[in-house]
Amino acid sequence: MAIFKKNSLKISDKKRTRAAELTLRQSIYPICLVTILFFLWGFSYGLLDTLNKHFQKTLDITRSRSSGLQAAYFGAYPLASLGHANWILRHYGYKPCFIWGLCLYGVGSLVAWPCLLHRSFGGFCAAIFIIGNGLGSLETAANPYITVCGPPRYSEIRINISQAFNGIGTVIAPVLGSYVFFKNTGDNIDSLKNVQWVYLAIACFVFLLAVVFYFSPIPEITDADMAFQAEETHAGTDIKPFIKQYRLFHATFAQFCYTGAQVAIAGAFINYVTETGAANNDSLGAQFLAGAQGAFALGRFVGSGLMKFVRPRYVFLVYMTLCIVFISPSITQRGNTGMSMLYITLFFESIIFPTIVALGMRGLGKYTKRGSGFIVAGVSGGAVVPPILFAVADLRNSTATAMAVPLAFFIAAWSYTLCVNFVPKYREVADKFSTAKVGVEPVGARDEENQVSGGSGSGVLGEEGKDAPTQTELVDAEKRH
């Protein structure tokens, strides 16, 4: 019983802890543990793109119908990020949300087994919907956790490095598909059996990982901690009502448009290369998809390195602009030229999702957990855009022509990129966090600096487990001294 008491899954969001000021060294273990989750949903996402084409062959369904996989997967995200997962995150904390998401992921993987056994596409979509709820729960907690766990000035770098392992997962899944799923596709029963074993292995692994999370001492970051960070950086916008957090809602819109375009391109990639002549069979197409996802993962590592020397918003602007530039030729080009355009597009897609998360959450303070639910809900664009792309592809009998659909959504997402770089109210919040000293300088050094400069004393820390001092109490304390 002592073990379970020690690993309590609930902490008050009104309590200040030391977690808001974790240094780089202190944040390494929790970040590494949570980064495993990024690999998991990268693998699951890559698996989905491969299964999309696989089911077209083995179950003899149209491109439009096969997009039901993406609709079920990403359609679950708003239910998780704005519903059950966000409720758990706000009332219990990050660790319970991680465990909840892993359990849902495991249950969905087990449900997939009988659905595949009976070759039920509708049943498998239901299993994918459960998995989507699990992964949506993990994203609701993991993305903001990586962003706030450690010095605020490095939040974009942290989340992009962690998301790079997501990219590695998306590389491994198509490779697995090319050698396992597309092997002996003439025998549909044996082909689907291979998929069953993959999902059983996933279920075993995620249930084990849930146990590891339960017993791991990862720091819990509360709303009071985030309010402190926002005040310390002088970039807090949480003094306004939540309904007036316009930057957050714009980031959510951009996430919806961008994620929809990204998922549509990846989901249609194998169709694109086989139709345009770059690949002469689905197995080779899956291997090309793995290469494209490798470019995606590489782009995240390169982007993370650039952010160490260049303001993240500049890197964001360049990458988003080049996505638009290189997706455009893929509409008219064919063969290796068209495929090369998609490779380059995926390279520049790499940092967009995590950077929108990091920039969109800046300055939210006590609204951080609630706001993260909205940004992650933007992932539901992945349920909307792919069906539109595949419907256009069926109508025009050309996946290449349908690439105009993600181009349009990229342009819509670009509006947020422009605002972050050229609209003062967006830009100032981003830049203040880039120079924040929280988690970089020792606490005592900042307190001395505040006293010398006659500051409000926002560097004064409440003791762990106690309520954070209010601004009035801090001012009164200064007067007494």
TrEMBL record:
Subcellular compartments: Cell inner membrane
Taxonomic source organism: Lophiotrema nucula
Region Disordered, residue ranges: 444-481
Pfam families found in the cross-reference section: MFS_1
UniProt membrane topology term: Multi-pass membrane protein
Any one GO cellular component localisation term in the record: plasma membrane
Principal subcellular localisation of the protein: membrane
Gene Ontology MF terms: transmembrane transporter activity
Spans through the membrane: 28-48, 68-89, 96-114, 120-142, 163-182, 197-216, 248-272, 284-302, 314-332, 338-361, 373-393, 399-423
Protein name: Major facilitator superfamily domain-containing protein
Keywords, in A-Z order: Cell membrane, Membrane, Transmembrane, Transmembrane helix
